[in-house]
Amino acid sequence: xxxxxxxxxRRHPWSTLLWGWRRETFAGLTTVVVLLxxxxxxxxxxxxxxxxxxxxxxxSPDIRTRVRSKLRRANQERxxxxxxxxxxxxxxxxxxxxxxxxxxIPAGARYLLELPVGLDLAALDxxxxxxxxxMNVRSVRIxxxxxxxxxxx
Length: 153
Prior knowledge:
Layout: H1 13-20, H2 22-41, H3 45-59, H4 61-86, E1 98-105, E2 108-114, H5 121-126, H6 128-135, E3 151-152
Antiparallel strand pairs: 1-2, 2-3
């Protein structure tokens, strides 16, 4: 009886989670530093800074829509990462499929994913029920993408 072993160790989900929150952590620390500097300048400095930020967001809807779309994209990317960790669909070296595009359609969303080495379409197609359950949706359809061999829609 022969035993096979994995060639490379799999990354733990927590390392991906912490790496995914690096921008939010940096933005939070930057906000704290800026507010402390504003307070050092004047006691009403933080209030003026917050009011200026609210005014900029309210005055320009294009900034608001860009921020909203970036937040939605980041949320969808984190959802897909957690789903693939949950159903244990990772590549040979422990990498997850990469989100390359999102299209909102009336029935939900269409994701363009790039598959890592070692994860093929047949493996995903067998587990569509698990993926749908983890995403809390009714069904999942997986199709190859015409634009490249590693992409799926």
